[in-house]
Amino acid sequence: MRKTEIVTLISAEGLEFVIDKKAAMASASLRKMITLSGSLKEGETIGEVRFVEMSSLELEKLCQCLYLTICLQ
């Protein structure tokens, strides 16, 4: 059984949102942040992206939008 690849998004307050890699990659900006920072390399299952200026509420809404985007594809 294959493990689901996940990404952890961390808000300014330190709250962590664990989302599917496919959802994270739905955003071109987030995709660049993940790949350019090297926080999620090929073969790894967990990456982290810190949003030092984004509140937990804002990050939660972003996660909802990312999942909605992949559902509509």
UniProtKB/TrEMBL annotation:
Domain of life: Eukaryota
Subcellular location: Nucleus
Alphabetical list of Gene3D superfamilies matching this protein: Potassium Channel Kv1.1, Chain A
Keyword Ribosomal protein: no
GO CC terms: nucleus
Main localization of the protein described in the UniProt heading: nucleus
Pathway entry: Protein modification; protein ubiquitination
Keyword set, alphabetical order: Nucleus
Protein family membership: Belongs to the SKP1 family.
Annotated PANTHER family: ELONGIN-C
Record-given protein name: Elongin-C
Lineage, opening ranks: Eukaryota, Viridiplantae, Streptophyta, Embryophyta, Tracheophyta
